[in-house]
Amino acid sequence: MIVFDLRCGAERHVFEIWFGSSQDYEDQKARGLVACPYCGDTAVEKAVMAPRLSAKGNQKGEPAQPVSLPTPEGMKDMLVAMAALQKKVLANSTYVGDRFADEARAIHHGEKDERPIHGKATSEETRSLIEEGINIAPLPFPVVDPLDEN
Ligand SMILES: [Zn+2]
Q: What is the pTM of this model?
């Protein structure tokens, strides 16, 4: 997994998205699948991580610092963006609860139609899915079980 700081063309929102590889990023971007979590704009580009304080009257054009520790504010923005993204991703995904491992395996073997799913898996199940070469990823935030909601 690799994380990119991205910026949308419309409003210049800066956000962060995880990809399997930088090739994944290129592919998804080319297919218009990489969208700003704030405004949905798909004209995104890799953000140059200049200090975000620079709007405060510092016009000297200092060289951008490629890596800086996120400020608490930046951290919060990032979490908000990630939560929004997860919500968006899950909107198109079917919750399969405890059957996650079985469903993922069935889809992997072509026994079921390929579709996005999410659900619960034990660490044991997770390990064997990965060993079988099944493409799964942990969600950054816990998901409320729709069955528990009422
Ligand atoms: Zn945006």
A: 0.47
